From TrEMBL:
CDD domains: S2P-M50_like_2 (cd06160). It is found in: Plastid, Chloroplast membrane. This is Peptidase M50 domain-containing protein. The keyword Metal-binding does not apply. GO terms for biological process: chloroplast organization; negative gravitropism; photosystem I assembly; photosystem II assembly; proteolysis; response to ammonium ion; response to cation stress; response to ethylene. GO terms for molecular function: metalloendopeptidase activity. The keyword RNA-binding does not apply. Belongs to the peptidase M50B family. Residues 98-257 form the Peptidase M50 domain. Keywords: Chloroplast, Hydrolase, Membrane, Metalloprotease, Plastid, Protease, Transit peptide, Transmembrane, Transmembrane helix. It comes from Oryza brachyantha. The chain crosses the membrane at residues 35-57, 86-107, 127-147, 159-179, 222-241, 261-291, 312-330. InterPro entries: EGY1-like (IPR044838), Peptidase_M50 (IPR008915). It is a multi-pass membrane protein.
């Protein structure tokens, strides 16, 4: 049941004019997962594990061999590549960050499946997408069943990001508390303070917890949980963008319909293209959405019934927090707030 696209006014009995369609059995009933899908899912998961370990090693940048840091960070570096076996001693110390990022993403997927189970909605196996900056782009999980109504689409779509964000913020905040505890100084890692300028919301929370002196320096000593939580919150925020088949796009389609998704999606693409959302991460995320997640979700069996004011308000509040998370701090504001050491304007 869908709204008639060319109707000129509402039904005289109340509500929009609707049309009904029939689906073939092979369309309405999910097919089995093939062996190749399992193989591809496993390979992508292993690549994601590797990218998460790489993220953990990169978090140790202050203690890595100088020749390796120069090779990967200096575009003008010349000469043969360094011996990558020099990184092996850092793998074990990188595991806490890798475990944290993986746990957040797995918790995200568990949220989807727990919300889908009581609705008897079948989901595909997750296809994790590696990302060497944040550990992972998230996972592509498809609806294999035709959804009964828009409330179901909204609830399942929102369950994953909310679960992942809850665990991410717990790690992030606990990590900040541990970072401000002198007794745990041996567990801390030094990271450039400019990294905290990547998010208006997370930078302000870090500044409020660690204090001006700690944040207004060239490097900041933080617990690995801060890195895992920061990456998890950023990934959750990107997946809640109201565009395409991302969780945020599905939730918006469920709450406001496909026409609203088109307008919000166009705005999101524009903000990503201009680098307003996510800063240097905006280009890879925009390409990821265009390549893998640009197609809106299929209509529900009942694609007309309203989801209610409460769900719409929850979505609006979530998008507002997403924007605050993905907007970076510009230099003047960062200097005024003491978030990172700004040397020039």
């Amino acid at each position: 049941m869908v709204e008639e696209p060319n109707s000129e006014g509402d039904d005289p009995r109340g509500g929009p004019r609707v049309s009904f369609g029939l689906l073939r059995r092979e369309v309405s009933e999910p097919g089995p997962t093939t062996l190749w899908q399992y193989v591809i899912s496993l390979l992508l998961f292993l690549l994601t594990v590797f990218s998460c370990v790489e993220l953990g090693i990169a978090s140790k940048i202050s203690s890595l061999p100088p020749e390796i840091v120069t090779y990967f960070t200096d575009p003008n570096a010349t000469g043969p590549p360094p011996d990558m076996q020099l990184l092996l001693p850092f793998v074990e110390s990188a595991l806490p960050v890798a475990y944290g990022v993986l746990a957040i993403q797995l918790f995200h997927e568990v949220g989807h499946f727990l919300a889908a189970f009581p609705k008897k909605v079948k989901l595909s196996i997750p296809f994790f997408i590696p990302n060497f900056t944040l550990g992972t782009f998230g996972a592509i999980t498809q609806f294999k069943s035709i959804l009964p109504d828009r409330k179901t689409m909204f609830d399942i779509s929102m369950a994953g990001p909310l679960a992942g964000a809850a665990l991410s913020f717990s790690m992030f905040f606990v990590g900040l508390l541990l970072s401000s505890n002198p007794a745990g100084a041996s567990d801390l890692v030094e990271v450039p303070s400019k990294l905290f300028q990547g998010s208006l919301l997370l930078g302000l929370v870090s500044r409020a917890t660690l204090g001006y002196r700690a944040m207004h320096a060239a490097t900041v000593a933080i617990h690995p949980l801060v890195i895992a939580g920061w990456c998890g919150l950023t990934t959750s925020a990107f997946n809640m963008l109201p565009v395409g088949c991302l969780d945020g796009g599905r939730a918006l389609q469920g709450a406001f319909g496909k026409d609203a998704l088109f307008g919000f999606g166009l705005t999101t693409y524009s903000l990503l293209g201009l680098g307003v959302l996510g800063g240097p991460l905006s280009l890879p995320w925009g390409l990821y959405v265009l390549i893998c997640q640009r197609t809106p979700e299929k209509p529900c069996l009942n694609d007309v019934s309203d989801v209610g004011t409460g769900r719409r308000a929850a979505l609006i509040a979530s998008v507002f927090l997403v924007v605050l998370t993905l907007i970076p701090l510009w230099d003047e504001l960062a200097e005024e707030l003491g978030v990172g050491l700004v040397t020039s304007f």
